[in-house]
Amino acid sequence: MRRVALAGAGGAAAAVLAALVPSLGLPQYYVSLLTQTWIFGIAAMGLDLLVGFTGLVSFTQAAFFGTGAYLIAILQTQYRLVAFWPALGVAVAGTVALAAVFGLLALRGEGVSFIIITLALNEIVWGLAYQWVSMSGGDNGITGFVRPAVAGVDLSGTAAFYRFCLAILLACLALLMAIVRSPFGLVLQGIRERPRRMEALGYSVRSFRYAAFVIAAGFAGVAGVLFAYYNQFVGPVNLSLDTTVQILIMVILGGVGTLLGPLAGAAVVVFVSNALSNLTQRWELILGAIYIAILLYAQDGLVGIGRRFGRAVCGTPGARGAAGGPAMSPPPPGERDGQA
After folding, report:
1. Contact of 318 with 312, CB cutoff 8 Å
2. Which residues span the domain enclosing 184?
3. Nearest to 243 by CA among 66, 52, 47
4. Domain count, the chain
5. Is residue 19 part of a domain?
6. At the N or C end, where does the chain have fewer CB atoms within 10 A?
7. Burial level of 217, CB count in 10 A (0-12/13-18/19+)?
């Protein structure tokens, strides 16, 4: 209980400090980078529900991220739906509907087959946005929409939009934590570790995976809406394979199955990529080397590094896995599915 209380107090303090960032006199450039971190953090945490807690590596997160962005832009520019909450509801509902269809197709495969199907589905959506010029604007994208006021608060300013994105991030984090700690989330983790055993216990593995797939898409849709308002531009790049790989890297870099890890991964990717791109044209090569080093020497990501550092400082023996639960390691030979 004491650890939970300390963690809650630390989280509250971190949230208050983050909310005060625009008032600390930082240049707007860094406030904008933090805004991007909160937005991509939502998409990465949603994907972590699928990758870290369900055991499915999906390459469709950019398709849902971009769908949310495109829908919000189309609703405002072509249908004059400016009010934020109704537009957000329609955009997320459209994204979830797309995920409901894609999930039926993707979950017909497992392992590598699932990855290839999700990759192909993402490319279909990207190609549709690129070719459907009358609706999506093609390569030129969609502009001409603005950030609406929410509850009387004007979000056109950098600081106001930063705090709004932070509030949405905290709400999404709280919802995801409730999901993974619920009986539903525990079943997902059981499916991740022993899918055939969970099936034998009477759980519909495919149904739970399908639900996780759709939920992850919903969070990507929310992030896409915020990113569209952040840039006030939407283009095919938001649906590209580069974007989906970037979000997946955030999850792996921060720590799979931790929720907070993907947020840390998002911060590293956003800040380091922007810093390196200002220093050299070879910034992608350096960034790739950083990714490889972390994956080789810290396979549990940045969260794992932090935990080991904390144990070294405090002298606490032992280790726990992601999200305070069992480590995500392969089951021993005698416990593998099909041999139990």
Report:
1. no
2. 28-236
3. 66
4. 1
5. no
6. N
7. buried
